[in-house]
Amino acid sequence: MPPCERCLALADDPRRREPPACLALRGTAPVVTQSAAGVPYSMLSFCCRDCGTGWRLYDRANELFVSWVPERPLER
């Protein structure tokens, strides 16, 4: 199934903090780890209720912005 308009909009603005209403949280606890450079971050997984697109929300410690990353490349 192709991504919905809200998922395409999120892909165009991946640094916004507020998730679209169509995203449902998978699980409740964030995965907390650190990058190869030693920077700690947390990751939450979401799934779009409308189109099924999977998303990961990465939030690095002491960073103003977050990163929304689709689990698979989006086909436009």
From TrEMBL:
This is Uncharacterized protein. It comes from Cupriavidus taiwanensis.
